Amino acid sequence: MRVYKRWQRPLAISFDLDDTLYDNAPNMVKAEAELQAWLTELHQDFAAMSVVDWAKYRRQVALQHAHLGDDMTALRRAALQQAFAARGFAAADSKRLAEQGFELFLHHRNQFQVAKDIVALMQRLKTRYRLVAITNGNAQPHLIGLDKVFDHIFYPLAGQYRAKPHVDLFRLAEHKLAIKPHQGLHLGDHLISDVAGAIGAGWHAGWFNPAQTQLTPSQRALALPHLEYSRLAELVDVLMA
């Protein structure tokens, strides 16, 4: 573990989920493939769309509906609905199929279990700290083995709570936990969403860096965490000492 700035023991700890407590890439590959197969059965036009094409399409929808840009769940639903409508499906059918498609995607992106050693470390932390999740994604902790770990799970919500690095979810967590910003420690893998977001909200920030890459001067200037760790176990030992 590496310490960059003076920090204090928190009253509560928030965790990012994807790529912080597990490698999310295989889950997304599987979910996107299952969704694509289902879409292609409904209309052959979808067969030509790659994962990259869908990402571009969602960005276009986000530009048309700015309030959806922070809420990946709402954005995915809207993109699917618009894609069905563009291929001649009736409005009611487009909405219904978009919901079915999203639920299929959500099911497959949550078809895994967090490693037992990680869950055990989280449960150990929970004996001393209040734990919450602050995520920009749509992982469902109760489906992936984390159902008894977090007191609260905070997601962006279109038109109400913006995604990290905005302060909205941190402020919501403070309210629910009855803590002040400096009493929270946020842990995550993303230097902007997690580290810069937490620091901008007045929280302490811990950067999960499993590859142990070196921070560049520009990264240090933009988002210098209070601490860095490559294994959760080493951080838990410090927090529980």
Report the β-strand fraction as a percent range: 5-15%
- Number of DSSP helical runs: 9
> How would you classify the helix and strand content by structural class?
alpha/beta
Number of structural units classed as domains: 2
**What is the correct CATH architecture of the largest domain?**
3-Layer(aba) Sandwich
Cα shape: elongated
How many DSSP-defined strands? 7
The H/E string reads: EEHHHHHEEHEHEHEH
Strand order of the main beta sheet, please? 1-7-6-5-2-3-4
End-to-end distance, in Å?
14 Å
CATH superfamily of the largest domain: HAD superfamily/HAD-like
Q: Predict the CATH topology of the largest domain.
A: Rossmann fold
What is this structure's SSE topology?
Layout: E1 2-3, E2 12-15, H1 25-42, H2 51-64, H3 72-86, H4 91-109, H5 116-126, E3 130-134, E4 152-154, H6 168-177, E5 184-188, H7 191-200, E6 204-208, H8 217-222, E7 227-229, H9 232-240
Parallel strand pairs: 2-3, 2-5, 3-4, 5-6, 6-7
Antiparallel strand pairs: 1-7
